[in-house]
UniProtKB/TrEMBL annotation:
Protein name, per record: Efflux RND transporter periplasmic adaptor subunit
Similarity field: Belongs to the membrane fusion protein (MFP) (TC 8.A.1) family.
Start and end residues of each Multidrug resistance protein MdtA-like barrel-sandwich hybrid domain: 106-205
Keywords, comma-separated and alphabetical: Coiled coil, Membrane, Transmembrane, Transmembrane helix
SUPFAM superfamilies, per database record: HlyD-like secretion proteins
An example Gene Ontology molecular-function term: efflux transmembrane transporter activity
Source organism of this protein record: Bullifex porci
Residues that span the membrane, as ranges: 36-53
Length: 372
């Protein structure tokens, strides 16, 4: 009886165990199904993304290829035009002459006889330093010369005269004088100050005229000569033009950092307007006598290669093209002046424009050439 009871109890226990096991297995199956579905969704999304990316990429490449392939050949003639040639200038004016006044002797300042803004004349005494020692030296040597004239040798007398000349120079160095007619621009000394030889005391300027140094490149220098007129405009003189004259052309040129030869030409303004001061900036032109004939080439037709070599493609009568090396000067507004090269008026030049360059508003030709 007890055995039957145990079998019944065990059977119920097994049922419960089985039910728990079945429930656990069912949960595991549900988890596997959910995981599988998640992975399927992820894979589908990745596949869809790759497919979309490839489609967009192909469309873009097709459009880019079509744009690159759309090339237009442009033909332009070499043109001739007549210009009144001018050379552009810029710079600043300076005093016609400047004296940086310095004592050539050391000592205490005993007198300052001018102030800033005073007008001075050539040779006028400006300032002086203590000359007691220098005066003593002069008088002492003069006395020695008198004695030598009575009882000394000719050699001794000659030596004393040289010493007197040196002493008189030293005495002269204690006085500061104006080297030219002008105006006192700065004063940096007061009576009683102690100055070392070589120290700057004051500045004298001649502004009865003004001058300016302008750089003119080697291409334009052949058109410039002494006495030629220049016309300058200043921000300080709105609406006015100031006339200047080419007064100095040096024998030697210099080179800029771009490797261009330039000449520092000096201009002089006679009787400048009172409003102009040294340091004011200007822009201007030198008018070149006579009209100048120029051959013009569109900038877009020019290609710049390695080493800065510029070329164009010329179309021949039989329809072929050949490369021609040229030198040009950029004039602005998309045109260059032909300086050298085997081209003539009416020659046809060819260049290509791609759709991309046309959309961007940029020609497929070379880089812009420099010019004045």
């Amino acid at each position: 009886m007890s055995e039957i009871k145990d079998q019944v109890i065990m059977s119920e226990s097994e049922k419960q165990e089985k039910a728990i096991r079945d429930e656990y297995n069912a949960k595991k199956r549900k988890k596997r199904i959910k995981k599988l579905i998640t992975w399927l969704i992820v894979i589908l999304l990745i596949v869809a993304g790759i497919t979309y990316y490839n489609k967009v990429k192909k469309d873009f490449e097709d459009k880019a290829q079509a744009m690159i392939g759309a090339v237009t050949t442009v033909e332009v003639p070499v043109e001739e035009n007549v210009y009144t040639s001018v050379i552009d200038l810029s710079g600043y004016v300076e005093a016609y002459d400047t004296q940086e006044s310095k004592f050539r002797s050391t000592g205490a300042v005993t007198g300052v006889y001018v102030k800033e803004g005073d007008t001075v004349t050539k040779g006028q005494l400006l300032a002086s330093i203590d000359n007691t020692n220098q005066t003593y030296q002069v008088k002492n040597i003069q006395n020695q010369i008198k004695q030598a004239e009575l009882s000394g040798s000719a050699s001794q007398l000659e030596t004393l005269k040289l010493q007197l000349e040196n002493a008189e120079n030293n005495l002269e160095y204690t006085n500061l004088v104006a080297n030219f007619d002008g105006t006192v621009a700065t004063v940096s000394v007061s009576e009683g100050d102690y100055f070392e030889a070589g120290s700057k005391v004051m500045t004298i300027v001649d502004v009865s005229k003004l001058k300016a140094t302008v750089q003119i490149d080697e291409i334009d220098m052949g058109k410039v000569s002494l006495g030629q007129k220049a016309y300058l405009t200043f921000d300080s003189l709105p609406g006015e033009t100031v006339e200047a004259v080419v007064t100095y052309i040096p024998m030697l040129a210099t080179y800029t950092t771009q490797g261009i030869g330039v000449v520092d030409v000096e201009l002089t303004i006679e009787n400048p307007p009172k409003q102009l001061k040294p340091g004011y900036s200007f822009e201007g032109t030198i008018q070149v006598e006579g009209d100048v004939q120029m051959l013009l080439i569109p900038q877009a037709a020019i290609t710049t290669g390695r080493g800065g070599v510029t070329t164009v493609e010329r179309k021949n009568a039989e329809g072929t093209t050949e490369t021609v090396s040229i030198r040009v000067k950029y004039l602005g507004e998309g045109y260059c002046q032909l300086l050298s090269g085997d081209l003539k008026k009416g020659d046809i030049l060819t260049y290509t424009k791609s759709a991309s360059s046309m959309m961007m508003g940029m020609p497929s030709g070379g880089s812009k050439q420099g010019g004045r």
